[in-house]
Amino acid sequence: MIAHAIFFYTFSIIAVVSAIMVTASKNTVHSVFFLILDFISISCLFIMIGAEFLGMIMLIVYVGAVAVLFLFVVMMLNVAQQKNQWFSGQATSKHIPVGLIISTLIFFEIIIVIGGWKYKPEIFDINNSLANTSVSNTHSLGQILYTDYIHVFQISGMILLVAMVGAIVLTFRQRSGVKKQSYIKQISRERAEGVEVLEVQSNKGVKIDD
Amino acid sequence: MEYLSIVFQEVYKILFLIVPVLVSVAMIVWLDRRVWAFVQKRQGPNVVGPFGLLQSLADALKYIFKEIIIPSSSNKVIFILAPIVTMTLALIAWAVIPFSATQVLADINVGILYLFAVSSLGVYGIIMGGWASNSKYPFLGAIRSAAQMVSYEVSIGVIIINVLLCVGSLNLNDIVIAQQNMWFVIPLFPMFVIFFISALAETNRPPFDLPEAEAELVAGYQTEYSGMMYAMFWLGEYANILLMCAMGAILFLGGWMSPIDVYPFTLVPGAIWLILKILLLFILFALVKAIVPRYRYDQLMRLGWKVFLPLSLTWVVLTASYLFYFNLLPVN
Fold this sequence. Notes:
heterodimer
């Protein structure tokens, strides 16, 4: 039990501190690295409560894919220029109200969650949960996700697909005048199309039209 | 006292796993160079020790005594962290590899997901190194490598789903035992080929070694590294290659199982079979390095997204419908 507590507090302290550092650090790339550290310690916490599938999926999806894309974007930005805009003078004041509104909303959401825990403790009772049954974590998730919640699952998949198509449509542009390689064209080329044997008469030459 | 003895026991187990892995990484580098030389009708490293076996050790000693140079304009913390991250990630993945039904450090429920997660984290060492160097070639190499690894991970993930459909469990030991009657390489042969090629791309091996393409990018993300830090990148890379071979052996070649289930073969311990299978896959890796020219970057991306992804997705549908139609789905 002591070892459990030690690990729990280590991971949660790392999670909270790195979450603070995401917003506090001035270098945006450092922020993303702290975000990654945060994700990793959260997934460690998931594993500690016995939700090993969620923890691993968190690692694969958030750390292995989403955060890599974050890093891509942030590294491409001109960080020095960005810093001047955000940290000097008037520009800052515009962001404060928006941030305040969002943070109050999140604060009330957290209060609702904690209130639920206070007033309906039986929902959060670990002894009633699936953790006690012999079915493994992955199996029980699959049994719920693909039976009772199949429509929600499918709808969330559709939303993601639509978002992906939208992003592609927004960034796609057809440039003209760019030479493109067509593999099928290259492979299916015959000798007859490419080679022409001509009689060349001396002092006259040949005229080749392209 | 009980805690202490448990801790010592675990440390002993971990050392018993990590030290052989590190030694075999050194040996595998030698093997790689020998196979490469063999294909090109050269001798390869054959001077230090018998058959040149101690060449990698000599190289390691040389790296240890070299000066570590940290560029003044680099981001020092991340610059130093990058090789450490690469090396650590390459080593922690070995915790779940089963060497026999009982010889496994951590027999966890989601073993294959753990392997997949750790190998997908491997990209961070490279990005961190490339960005922290604060120089053009490393940065270009890091960007290339990140895009490449993210793309090929997708198809590796889908191939893993193929195997999991036939097994019905994420535990690596269950995956091995499910191949008792037939190795998955036979029914899923196209997937094995795609897995092998994706593993080449995932570990930045030739013909997909664009992140460190010496003709274009000097040495890619490793350009600014020297001494022991460079050696750590190098060790991590080869440990990752070995890990990919082990993953291939477990997913498709029956892991620690003997090829034929008859008397003299079953006496050989499982670890030996697994090592032989890893070696077989690694020699294939080394041969590919010697005989295939480097891909162009757009061709690499096309292969990943337009060829491998649709193919492996179609194969998932095929496998699933076959298993469903003949009522072979593993249900427990």
